[in-house]
Structure formats: structure tokens, C-alpha cells
Amino acid sequence: MFLGDRPSLHLPAGEEDVMATAAADSEAPVRRRRSNPHLPPYMSELRVVLLGNRCSLKNSVGNMILGGNCIREPDCCQKVSTIIDDKKIILINTPDLQHPNLCGEKLTKFGKDLMRLSDPGPHLFLLVLQPENFTEEEEERLQFLLQMFDSPSNHTLTLISTSKQETSDVREKYLQDPLIGDFLSECKHEFIQNDELQRSKLWKTINQILEENHGKNVGFHQNTSAHLELPSCHGNEEQEKEERNTLDVVKQAGMGIYNAAKGWWPFSGIVGQSEETAEPQFSVRIVLLGKSKDKLSKMSNFIIGDEVFHSQSSNKQCVTTSGEWNGKSVLVVKTPDLFVMNEQMVRREMSRCRSLSFPGPNVLLLMVKPSDFTQEDAEKLNFILSLFGQNSFQHSMIVFTHKEKQAKVLNELLQKCGGRMYNMLDKNHGLLMENIERMMSENRGSFLTFTEETRGPQCEQIKPDLNLVLFGRRGAGKTSASKNILGLSVSSQQSVRNQAEVCERLVSVVELPPLSERTQKEVMQESFRSVSLCDPEGVHAFILVLPVDPLTDEDKGELQTIQKAFGPQVKDFTRILFTVDFDPKDPNVVNFVEKNEDIQELCQSCGGRYDILNIRNKQQISELLEKIQVENSYSAHTFTQAQMEKNIELEENMRQLNRQDPCKKQQSPESVRIVLIGKTGSGKSS
């Protein structure tokens, strides 16, 4: 029976034969002839994770979802899929929680495989449990897996196997169960299953969950509510305390920041998929074009219904924010002032806009101040819209920022846009969104693709953007290096991004404050801020700035802090910059760097990449920039993956501490405590 008022379910006979292919890393979907799921119309794909401690029931549920006998007991995470009425159904089947080998490194691998196969995140967790056999160890394993996701309880359907002799009080019985009670009370959707399950009603319940979550998937993020509470380890208390402190910092500062920022996260397409195969993340994709940064920010906030952008915030690149309206996911791309850019820079921004609004925008909002719109502006706007294709005006609506008399040139633009218009002063959100929805309906759900002109031969000649993060101790010369690279004079107590066109390319520099003197939480915040400022391209080089002097503990500490915060992946993107204000080829300088053992050891920890240059010499700066590879980068997604891996590792370390033999812990040197007693001056301190 269902918990509450939901009816009991049973498995119907006579299902049509269905083929589906299972594999550990990939799936080969096969089209079905008969549909049953009826997914919400805005969903083209459903990803389900199947977890449980009863193999036979778990496999039955999986086969019922896919509509065939294709699920077997796996020894590792297994991905199976089918296509029903052009809707792709993906099921990630997992080993039983009671599997004897599911511990230690294998449990860690289980978690990594689960994240990889469900990327960019599952829409639903199906949890199939048999209470009589559910142990504390299985409960810990389940918690360990679920805590890697952001608020999984809202996306979890719990099925509990009971015997037919169970009474109607079974709901209260299991809610009071010390192991499964928490799952039942936390999960928004759960029901008791009485050995028989009806497929149509299972799908009805699944669709109810999908509708309530507006088709959104669970992200690979962590918040404090999902913190895994492990039993205390009474031996080796200092080590456990350090592990817990580090784990809390990773979760709260690292994953919490990512979770807070996910609304505006500028991923290009869907993580882990090529643009040719990825599905759109957003139903409504709006691009804002205009000259006033204040009005662009206000309109972005107005559409989303949240104060994401400050009214005076200035962006030199396209930035995004997202939200929901009427059950639909909405993306807003706020462009910089394209009207003051040259043709090459406009093409570059349109290429970036294409990535951010993948597979292409379906709405263009043209922000116009009537008294300020000239014939020259109209010509520039025509050029910009031409990069969206020949149908760009069919997807365009004018948004007037002021109630002023319209000039002839503006009337012509309004006519090209089919008379579609809205005035910001009306402040009628419903009217604006209805106009947008009507325009999308008239265009039959089509979207704009960018013409080859956007990324044609002229665009290919443009050097790709370069993003640098400078770090080092106080007084090492970071600000001077940043100033001379960009030709700007800016300093800040926190990570900020400064941009300039250098050597015919757009170069961005983020200067990190000294990190070794900050708390772990502050380090994580600054680290995340630095990479997020460089997205979507990512950081192409982390540069440790050093003077040509003997290394200090602070110098070493800065590099160690960066490597610890960003994970082992950062080594491939780290290089050292020794700055001088004279000839860098001076023998004294070269010999000092090459023969100093501490410096060489530090350089080797950065893959041997280092440069000595006169930072005031523009030619040498140009040579430095040419050395930095832009094919690969360290992105905010890389940072998040590093934190999740660190999270998994720390969880496992804590588990190992908790499983230590009490006798061994008492004999451990870390557990020995000595008290020295004596009078003052007797030598206790010595």
C-alpha cells in the first residue's frame, strides 16, 4: 500500500517485449513501440538512480520502469536506457547496499561512478528497502552516497517491502524505526509496497515528483543539511577533530558557495556532453541587448524575480542568471554594451553568447531609450542581430526604458519586430512574460542559431581569451605584475577580475589576496571566487609571483595552500613568475634561481614551469602570455569535482578512524597523554 492515502500497486501482466542495453560506462538506447511514462512535456530525458538492499525487488522495479527484463544484479554501477516516444529513460542500477565488498576504496569508487554515470545529475532516486534486513552499516553507506547530492530528499521515492500480513499500522511502525524512520520522514515521496507493484501507478507517482520539482535534476552539490553524522571516535581525538574541521570547511565553504551560485552558473551546454548531443537546460533562453548597464541589470533581475545583479554592475563579457516562471526554467544572458565594441569584439561576445544560451536563444529583448536611439545605433543593432540569423527579428521584442516620443528610426525597428513592445515603467511581470510566451508560441518553439559569419574565418583569426590567477605572499609583487600585464592600476582585499586587451587578445587577471594567513573557510571562498570569475573559459594559468630572493615560509605556504584548496589537478596549470626590474638574463639572477635547492624544489612541484622576466618590459610580457596554453583550463566545474573527491576521501578517512580497533587505539602513540609536574625552573619546558 502507499503511505497515507495512496493505493496499493501490483505488477500487470502482458507487457510488450522491450530491448535495452546495459553497460558500466555507456548505454545503447533502443526505441520502444509502446509508451507509458508520459513525462512532462518540457522534459526530453529522465535519469533515475536505483538504490536498495533487496536485489530481487530492486531489479523488478528497474525492469518495470524500462518495460522489459533487462536488469541484472550488478557488481558495479550500471547504466541502462531505452527511448519511449522520443523520451530517453536512463536508469543507473547500483550494487546492493548489503554487498560484502562495498566498503573502503570500493565504496569511494561507487560514489564516483554514480556521479559520473548520472551526470549532470539524476532527476529521481528510487530507494528500495527491506526493513527486516536493513542494517546500520547499510544505512551509513546510503547516507554516504546521498550526501554527495544537493537536497536529494525532494527527489527521492522510497519503496518498502512488507509482507501481506502487515497491519494498517505499518506506516507508524516504520516511521519509528531507528534506521529507516529518518528516510521516511525526510523523503517527500514514499510508499509501502506489498510485493506487487502496478507499473502505471508507479509512473504516476514518478511524474508527480517530476512535476513538483519542475523537471529539475539534483546537482552534485553539498549543503549543511546533508552533513553525514558519524559516531564519535574516542581514540585519536585530535586527528578526528582535524578531519571534521576540514570536512566542514569543504562542505560549507566549498560546496555551499557552489550551491549558492548555481543560479547564475555559466556552464557551456551540459557538463559532460557535446553540444551535438546535449539537451537544452532551459526552456526559455532570453538574451538582453542594450547600452545601459543599469537598465540591463534591472531587467535581468525583474525577469528572474531576484536581485542577482547590482544596478551599477558592469560586465565586459556576457553573464547569465536563471530562475523559473510558470513551471518553466528561464535563462537570461545579460550582454555588455556591444554598441561601443568593434566588430571583432562583438563577434567574440556573440560566440560566447552562443555557448551560454545553448542551443540558441529563443527570445531577444532589445533595451532602447527612445530619445537616445540614433540611425548609427540602428545600423549597429542590425549587424548584431544579423549574427543570430535571418529570422532574428521574429524572435525580438523592444523594451522601452523610458516613455518618450519615438523617432522615425525607432518606428522602423518596431515594425521589423512585428510591433512587439513592452515598457519597463509598467512593472508588469505577468504582461512581459505573457508577451514572451506568445512570441515563442508564434515561432513554434524554434530558436536562433548563429550564422557561420559569427565563427567564420575572421573570427578564427582572433586570439582566444586568456584568464590568469596571480597569487603569492604580501609584498611579493602581485599587484605590480597585474598592473604591468594589463596596464591598469587596481588593488583589492579580495579576488576581483580585471580585463584589458593585451597583444590583440582579451586578457583577464584575478589577483588573489595572501591565503596562507587566512582561515580555511576564507581560503575556500577566495578560491571558488577566483575560478568562478574566470568562467566559462576557466583559468588557463595559476601564477605564483616571487621576487628573486631566498624563499620564505610564507612563499612555500602560499603554494601549499593553493594546491590543497584546488586539488591535485591544479598542478598542471601552475607556474612561477620571478620578477625583476632589470635584465632577467643577468648571470647572478639565473644562477641564483637555477642553483638554489629550495627554489628548484618549488619549481618542480609546479611541473618545472617558471619564468624570469622584467615585468615592465612589454615584449617579455607578450612572450609570457604566448607560453600559456589555452587548450585546457581549470574551471569552476573542475574545482567542484575536486571538492567532491576531497569530500569522499575525508569521509572515508573518518570511517577508517571510527572502525579502528579500540585496543589498538589505546596503544596508539597519538592516544598517549603525559603530564609533567615540577616546580618553576626545574626544566619542564625544556
TrEMBL record:
Keywords: GTP-binding, Nucleotide-binding
Gene3D superfamilies tied to this protein: P-loop containing nucleotide triphosphate hydrolases
Keyword Cell inner membrane among record annotations: no
GO molecular function, one term: GTP binding
Keyword Nucleotide-binding attached: yes
Pfam families: AIG1
SUPFAM superfamilies, sorted: P-loop containing nucleoside triphosphate hydrolases
Domain AIG1-type G residue range list: 281-489
Domain of life: Eukaryota
Family: Belongs to the TRAFAC class TrmE-Era-EngA-EngB-Septin-like GTPase superfamily. AIG1/Toc34/Toc159-like paraseptin GTPase family. IAN subfamily.
Protein name as catalogued: AIG1-type G domain-containing protein
Biological source species: Oryzias latipes (Japanese rice fish)
Higher taxonomy: Eukaryota, Metazoa, Chordata, Craniata, Vertebrata
Gene it is expressed from: LOC111947938
